[in-house]
Amino acid sequence: MASKSFKATRSNLSISSDATDSQPNKPPLPPTVTFARRTSSGRYVNYSRDDLDSELGSQDFMNYTVHLPPTPDNQPMDAISQKVEEQYVSSSLFTGGFNAVTRAHLMDKVIDSEINHPQMAGAKGSSCSVPGCDAKVMSDERGADILPCECDFKICRDCYLDAIKTGDGICPGCKEQYKTTDLDELVVDNGTRPLPLPPPAGMSKNERRLSLMKSTKSVLMRSQTGDFDHNRWLFETSGTYGYGNAIWPKEGVMENGKDNEDVHVDSLELMNKPWRPLTRKLRIPAAILSPYRYTSHLNSHVPFISVLMFPLWSPNSLLLIVVRMVVLVLFLAWRINHPNNDAIWLWGMSVVCELWFALSWVLDQLPKINPVNRATDLAVLKEKFETPTLSNPTGKSDLPGIDIFVSTADPEKEPPLVTANTILSILAADYPVEKLACYVSDDGGALLTFEAMAEAASFANMWVPFCRKHNIEPRNPDSYFSLKKDPYKNKVKSDFVKDRRRLKREFDEFKVRINGLPDSIRRRSDAYHAREEIKAMKQQRQKRDDEAIEIIKVKKATWMADGTHWPGTWLTPGPEHTKGDHSGIIQVMLKPPSDEPLQGVEDDAGMLDLTDVDIRLPMLVYVSREKRPGYDHNKKAGAMNALVRASAIMSNGPFILNLDCDHYIYNSQAMREGMCFMMDRGGDRLCYVQFPQRFEGIDPSDRYANHNTVFFDGNMRALDGLQGPVYVGTGCLFRRIALYGFDPPRSKERHPTFCSCCCTGRKKAKFSTPEENRALRIGDSDDEDMNLSLAPKKFGNSTLLIDSIPVAEFQGRPLADHPAVKNGRPPGALTIPRELLDASTVAEAISVISCWYEDKTEWGQRVGWIYGSVTEDVVTGYRMHNRGWKSVYCVTKRDAFRGTAPINLTDRLHQVLRWATGSVEIFFSRNNALLASSRMKILQRVAYLNVAMYPFTSIFLIVYCFLPALSLFSGQFIVQTLNVTFLVYLLTITLCIVMLAVLEVKWSGIELEEWWRNEQFWLIGGTSAHLAAVLQGLLKVVAGIEISFTLTSKSGGEDEDDEFADLYTVKWTSLMIPPITIMMVNLIAIAVGFSRTIYSTIPQWSRLLGGVFFSFWVLAHLYPFAKGLMGRRGRTPTIVFVWSGLIAITISLLWVAINPPQGQNQIGGSFQFP
Questions:
Q1: Per the residue annotation, which of 398, 684, 873, 895 is the catalytic one?
Q2: pTM for the complete prediction?
Q3: How many Cα atoms occupy the beta-carbon half-sphere of 1 within 13 Å?
Q4: Which of 96, 187, 418, 990 is deepest in the core (most CB within 10 A)?
Q5: Three-state secondary structure call for residue 889
Q6: Among 777, 951, 772, 1025, residue whose Cα is nearest residue 876
Q7: Residue 261 confidence (pLDDT)
Q8: The sheet that has 436-442: what strands, in order across it?
Q9: Sign of the C-alpha dihedral, residues 357, 363, 366, 368?
């Protein structure tokens, strides 16, 4: 697959690889593109026929540089040639990187199985009839051959261009001259609109596209001009005047064989329609929220703000306010003023812990003062963006584009079948096909992932039309065919049963092919390796006839289906082919769809009847960024930033949806719901729309609180009433321009004050904004351009990337269909055709995913996903809120996305450890909310501060969990005596906590059992993973030492067919030591306390009851942890008993050694704190 470049005679911009390698100290030059195609005979030939007879024709392969500037001899290609060029580019595997020439290898065969979709790379087609050429014939969107001559002579793209340029336009078959009119008619017959005029000299594609979109502004809009521009409407559409000044279609106007009555509608009806919002904010009912809301305010000691925001008080809420305030003040005062002089150390530890718990509780409750619910109106969205209007007479979708990112790194840990199902759910989403583009980031560069994505693209040819035809939900085939409900409910088409049976069989075969890919790739590579060894031995025999033959070692490469080396990671790692050292790869699996719908036809071969079903598929791109030793690739955040840059050049969707490989689209209209917020009035100030995470495969009891509903349905809804929810890493719809580090529009009009959480400031204030908080500004009007003077320093030296920024900003604006909509775009601006892909575009995408591109730029610092933390998601969202952006929480009636979560105890603890470690890193970094800018609201800052501080609660929590045991060991308690005052305080606080939980459960919609599971795992995680995260963070900050916690042993159940078998698997980890110690110490302490009290001369039952009560409180919270250790039917690994026994014996001996028994009537003595 490797190829060498040479200087083309028609261009002086070609760069040879030798020249590049000889100057390593100079900055890398812009990449050139070399094309090589492998024929069936094994030779590599170039695209152009001009060089077939050149002096290099004797070489094994040759290349042709296609990155040519427009010259008198090199004019833009006609419509057919441009589309064929896109097809060839889409079928080529692009590779390149640092100090390397960007190469495009034409993939005649992507996978071993048959490919039958014309959009897919490697699709089969007819062969060229020109003697000596075995290339594929040009084809249209349906895969039908494009035959430019009336004689139907089959000719490929290269031969056609040669005939036009060097053969005077004469057909090689009939020897007649090609007719230009026939070509134009051919384009029209294929259902594609004529291409626009060539751009003016010196204008880039992005500039031209932006000018085309902005030129639609003069199209009538009553909300902008107040007058209807009849002349322009008549000029730009097919409308004319009829009787009564009504808009009437011309005679004979037909579309798709039907009378075009739906396209032309009454202008007065369109203009006089009332403006309707896309979203609504639903307040929580006051009867539910008032007691909770006011309680939170008064406990935070800001009664004035609470009165200002919510002046209506109810008697119940006022009573609860008074009770809780009095209890809070009196209890803390009583605890401080009544120390236990007999055990001052015990009293001191308990008071310090209680003060910290009070602070932590206040930080958690303050952001919950204003929870909201939101609702979207999809009917209004369709009416505004996909219904015929005066500015969009054809009703073509005016929605902005969305680029969807799916990230994966290791096919062994993230099964390719799971990723393939996620991709299929994306390709089948209910969103305009031409506006979607899916990018799969394979950070491991594995051929297994590459071929699995190709198999998914091939299966999508049947799956996506099936979903559209029968309105299937969910559109993940694995989940759909695993549904336990009746699949035939609400299905009315007579052929549904036949189609479903056919798809089920195809999907089963698809799964078998995916599961067999590892073995298939290995066998193929072994076969090619053996062939290479035999070939090398033959060559050696020819050179050395009489000498002894030495054993030749040929490097064992990984081979693709077309018989060439895989440029990524090899099964047997070799130089420049390992996970951390390989070239950048881009392969367009599915080329961009046509601009117009492509209706299917009835298949006589027993396939699906796709009549009147759009069979187009969204663009699918495989991306594996370049990795080289010595570079910090920044894990997932670096992969996401590479996708941001590559997608900006190839599709430039103004919005980005990122999903983990195991999170699929469960609601096919989820993106439409998110777009309602972005396109609504004021939506241009939204940086992202966060969807809740929902999980499948969780055990019915949710032992380890995997659903996390308290956070997703409680905390996130509450944050939605402030500046917006935090970004949680997946299921998030971003505004691209916000990821670029720009300020929100109209930021000059807003000047935050101290009370910005409650009211809008009016006075201007000057702030010294830190460098990391400053951002490029967005123009607030069309007369005010974006400030891109520092763009190369911030975004790198890619001109295409920088030119795409204002285009993405303009396309992401809401619709200017109302005078109150500021910074809007005119209706119909996004109905223009997309730009076709060419080689130079993909070559530029290869350059921006190279390992050197981010050097001396602000990627990862202020642009894109932020580096420096394992929880890059929280930091990225924090930076956006810090610039003044807002976010929205979108809870859909049907879950938007669903994924998987670890149900195993050890895996769950390590997941929590990662989150907590990231929070500790945030606390000790400049992303601490205490250093936030004035643009962030006060309560939003409190929420981010709580995110960074919650792991430190583990220090006080683990001490508090040992206090009952220390109390029982010593015979003392945290108070001098259990008098009535303490018991009243304790009872009142307990009742308030219960009432608070009931209210929170009521307004958030979660169940009380889920709340209790969350409380249990809060203590389990707080005494294990959170404590380890604090220790790890402190060692890293203070001493620069990084520690890790690994698995050491594993014990599982026997039933492999059990869906929840992983729940009973016990994997030993050092994180289990603190909770086990707490359980054993408290159990031993209870036994010791009972023994001492029974055998004491004067039993102290009050102290015993106090210690036993709190010990049982600790053990009740740790019950799921103990149950997880027991595995299935009590099968616990020996290591658990060993550790538990050693700890119990050690503590018992320590207690006896400190104060041994002094008489026959007493067991143990009084413990004295050292």
A1: 873
A2: 0.80
A3: 26
A4: 96
A5: strand
A6: 772
A7: 41
A8: 44-45, 33-38, 102-106, 92-96, 584-590, 619-624, 436-442, 402-408, 655-660, 732-735, 686-690, 886-889
A9: negative
Q: Is 254 helix (H, G, I), strand (E, B) or coil?
A: strand
**What are the backbone dihedrals phi and psi of residue 1158, each rounded to the nearest 5 degrees, phi first?**
-110, 0
For the chain, the distance separating the N- and C-terminal CA atoms, rounded to the nearest angstrom, is 74
Decide: 221 and 825 in contact? Cβ < 8 Å.
no
Residue 951 tokens, joined: 């792991």
- Band of residue 603 on the pLDDT scale cut at 50, 70, 90: low
Alpha helices in 68-216 (DSSP H): 79-90, 157-165, 180-189, 205-214
Residues 6+ apart with CB under 8 A from 464: 424, 427, 428, 615, 617
Helices in 755-871 by DSSP H: which ranges?
Answer: 791-795, 799-811, 839-848
> In 3D, which of 752, 826, 922 has the Cα closest to residue 232?
826
Please give the Cα distance from 860 to 639 (Å, whole number): 11
Among residues 892, 884, 886, 874, which one has the least CA distance to residue 934? 884
* 228-264 pLDDT tens trace: 444 444 444 444 443 333 344 444 444 444 444 444 4
**Pick the residue with more confidence: 461 or 182?**
461
Residue 1053 pLDDT:
46
Classify residue 324 as exposed, middle or buried by CB count within 10 Å of its CB (0-12, 13-18, 19+): buried
Say whether pLDDT at 314 is over 90. no
pLDDT reported for residue 11: 30
Q: What is the mean pLDDT of the chain?
A: 75
DSSP per-residue codes, 1006-1063: --HHHHHHHHHHHHHHHTTHHHHHHHHHHHHHHT-------EEEEE--S-TT-TTGGG
CB burial string 200-209: b at 16+ within 10 A, e below: eeeeebbebb
Answer whether 401's CB lies under 8 Å from 439's CB. Answer: no
The string of pLDDT tens digits covering residues 568-582 is: 999 888 888 888 889
The answer to whether 443 is a known catalytic residue is: yes
Residue 1021 has pLDDT above 70, yes or no: yes
**Distances in whole angstroms, Cα of residue 772 to Cα of each of 637, 775, 776, 875, 945:** 18, 8, 11, 12, 18
The 3-class SS string of 291-352 reads HHHHHHHHHCCCHHHHHHHCCCCCHHHHHHHHHHHHHHHHHHHHHHHCCCHHHHHHHHHHHH
Contact 346, 967 (CB under 8 A): yes
Query: What is residue 1146's predicted lDDT score, i.e. its pLDDT?
Result: 67
More confident residue, 112 or 919: 919
SS3 call for 437: strand
Mean pLDDT check: name the lowest of 367-371, 499-503, 544-548: 544-548
The predicted pLDDT at position 53 comes to 34
Give the bridge partners for 436, in sequence order. Answer: 402
Q: Locate 957 and state its tokens.
A: 């929590």
Q: pLDDT confidence of 167, banded at 50, 70, 90?
A: low
Can you give the pLDDT at residue 694? Answer: 92
Residue type, 1062: D
C-alpha closest to that of 102 among 151, 154, 47, 65: 65
973 vs 1109: CA distance, rounded Å: 12
- Written as one letter, the residue type at 922 is I
What does the pLDDT look like over 9-20, one tens digit per residue? 333 323 333 333
pLDDT at 255: 41
Nearest CA-CA partner of 488 in 480, 651, 121, 376: 480
Residues 51, 364, 398, 443: which is the catalytic one?
443
Three-state SS sequence of 638-680: HHHHHHHHHHHHHCCCCEEEEEECCCEECCCCHHHHHHHHHCC
Mutual angle of helices 953-970 and 344-365, in 10-degree steps: 150
CA angle 1080, 1086, 1091 (to 5 degrees): 130
Q: Is the pLDDT of residue 367 over 90?
A: no
Average the pLDDT over 494-520 and give the result: 92
